[in-house]
Design goal:
Belongs to the TRAPP small subunits family. Sedlin subfamily. It holds the Pfam family Sedlin_N. This is Trafficking protein particle complex subunit 2-like protein. Helix content is about 40%, strand content about 25%. The chain is an alpha+beta fold and about 140 residues long. The chain has a single domain, classed as Beta-Lactamase, CATH 3.30.450.70. Strands 2-1-5-4-3 form a 5-stranded antiparallel β-sheet, sandwiched between helices. Strand 1 and strand 2 form a beta hairpin.
Length: about 140
């Protein structure tokens, strides 16, 4: 199972997708519990990230079943990705490129004049990109 979540700067979900969907509630909980780690990493890095365009946080925390990775944009939108721990073939640079791809798609949504920033994301193109990205993780 895998999950991808985008959270606003105020920590409410903009987009959450789980594959498969039967453990969706468990993964909502996982994404929200990882926010404390995201906030810790951001505050630990402090002023150093003011000049950076993007912030890949790396592995937030591992459990027996999955690994949780994080990424923050310059506008403080948080991306969280949950992957199976059994997937040992997935390298850090592959996770980083998946976050970049996610960030680029998110930027495309923000450029849509009909999207109101802060609203939940309802986009077929974004769904398709996230689904294809998650299938690659298998």
């Amino acid at each position: 199972s895998r999950q991808c979540g985008l959270l606003s700067p105020q920590n409410y979900p903009l987009y959450i997708r789980s594959v498969p969907t039967e453990n969706e509630l468990k993964f909502h909980y996982t994404v929200h519990t990882s926010l404390d780690v995201v906030d810790e990493k951001i505050s630990a890095m402090g002023k150093a990230l003011v000049d950076q365009r993007e912030l890949y946080l790396g592995l937030l925390y591992p459990t027996e079943d999955y690994k949780v990775y994080g990424y923050v944009t310059n506008s403080k939108v948080k991306f969280v990705m949950v992957v199976d721990s059994s997937n040992t073939a997935l390298r850090d640079n592959e996770i980083r490129s998946m976050f970049r791809k996610l960030h680029n798609s998110y930027t495309d949504i923000m450029c849509n004049p009909f999207y109101n920033p802060g609203d939940r994301i309802h986009s077929r193109a974004f769904d398709n990109m996230v689904n294809s990205m998650m299938m690659q993780v298998c």
